[in-house]
Structure formats: structure tokens, C-alpha cells
């Protein structure tokens, strides 16, 4: 996976290992849809990338990585408290061992735009960093909710 990403010609993402661990990656998402408000936000705030953390379980690729946004602080775009990400494919039920990290990141980039993700600019709130503990709790809660009610994409008019 790591070697495949290094060979990407479009510089869509780049990866740095956390403490040289193959199970803990910081991934820089360099590109989102250039027609999106998020891309405009990135240009206006001189944000070169969206930084995510992926933690892989011992049995990867048979279980999904835990993925969360580290920075910048985003609002909407299916990014929730702590930087947790609301995407069915990141859950055990929605995961397939055929998914690559690149494919997951491309799906995430698309869902950020579809969900009208923006860089948070609210005074005070934009500087508050996301936490792993908060992200894990939020993700656990959203999985429980979706297992009960299903994974339905609401109409854009619903926000």
C-alpha cells in the first residue's frame, strides 16, 4: 500500500509514518474537487493539504483502518466531533478487503465535497484541535446509530 501511494503520479496524497510504524500513518490529502467551496477555502487560507491519521488494525486489510481528520478543523463534509469521519466503508460492515488506501482517500475527498465540507473559520473554534479520544467516541456512536437506522444519504436540501 505504502509503495503504491509513493508511485502515484498525480500527487493526490502523500504519507508519513508515525514513529516509523507501518500501522500508524499521517496522510496528507493534497487535492479535492477544484470546483468545490472547500478547494476555495483551501486556497484562501493557504491550506496545502488536509491532514488525516489512519491507524491500521493487526488484521488489515480484513478490517478497516480507523481514520480521522487532524487538521485543519473542518465543518460539515461528514466530519464530526474529534475529526471522526462518517463513512460506511470505514465500518466493519461496510469495509471490503479489496479497498486500497488510495481508493478510501478518493472516496473521502468526494464525500467531503458532497457533504459541503468547509474549513472552520469561527473565532476560537477554528483553533481547537481535534482529539483521538473524541473521534473514537463519536465514531463508535455514529456506527451504533447507523446500524440501528441504516446508512441513508439525505437529500442535499437536508444539509
Cα(first) to Cα(last) distance is 34 Å
Low-pLDDT runs of 5+ residues are 155-159
Shape: globular
CATH homologous superfamily caption: Ubiquitin Conjugating Enzyme
CATH C-level class is Alpha Beta
How is the largest sheet built, in terms of strand order?
A: 1-2-3-4
**Count of separate structural domains:** 1
- Specify the biggest β-sheet: 4 strands, antiparallel
Give the percentage of residues in beta strands.
15-25%
InterPro entries: UBC, UBQ-conjugating_enzyme/RWD
Organism: Struthio camelus australis
Protein name: Ubiquitin-conjugating enzyme E2Q-like protein 1
Domain UBC core: 1-152
Describe the structure.
It comes from Struthio camelus australis. It is an enzyme of class 2 (transferase). This protein has 159 residues and is of the alpha+beta class. The chain has a single domain, classed as Ubiquitin Conjugating Enzyme, CATH 3.10.110. The protein has 4 helices and 6 strands, in the order αββαβββαβα. The strands form 2 sheets. A 4-stranded antiparallel sheet has the order 1-2-3-4. A hairpin with a 2-residue loop joins strand 1 and strand 2. The longest helix has 18 residues. It starts with a helix and ends in a 10-residue tail after the last helix.
